[in-house]
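Q: NOL9 C-terminal domain-containing protein, please. Structure only.
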Amino acid sequence: MRERRLVEYFKQCFSSDISLATNKELAYALASLPPYEVSFSDVTVMHLHCEVPRTEIWHSLNATIVGLASSCDTPATAHAIPWCVGLGIVRGIDVQRGLLYVITPVAVEHLQSVDLLLQGLIEIPRSVLQVKGCESPYMSTNVRDKITGKDLYASNLNSPLSRQDDGDSDSDADTM
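A: Structure for NOL9 C-terminal domain-containing protein:
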């Protein structure tokens, strides 16, 4: 049941007029979807169920589902629970450039406040990963150059998460 709900959740990355009737169609669609580019410096990572060595924090996120959250960083709310705006698949990492590549159906206006990635125990659905003859969504190499919110919306949104645009990247992204 959880796997089915996750599949349905990530189908929201696409408009409703796109037919994604099978897991294979969804896997192809996710692999072709340009991810958001997230700078390491714009987010903090919180591992919810384990301790991860500092040197492995970014690698530990590769090919995982993370919660996209807003921390409460004011003194009055220092012990408040972070507000999770949705889930994302970390499709790849580029340690040399300090970037994560994330797929999510969360709207850009809700991503503006995301400064915290929560890694728990939610796994990418196997039905999407293990599709015969299909490249898994986190395994593709079609990472695109960054476009800022200003380029997309004619005003600077100052978002740590920004959708990418064009396929001329020379990135040595660490993908599984």
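A: Brief note, in case it's useful. The beta strands are 36-39, 44-47, 65-70, 83-94, 99-103, 116-119, 161-163.
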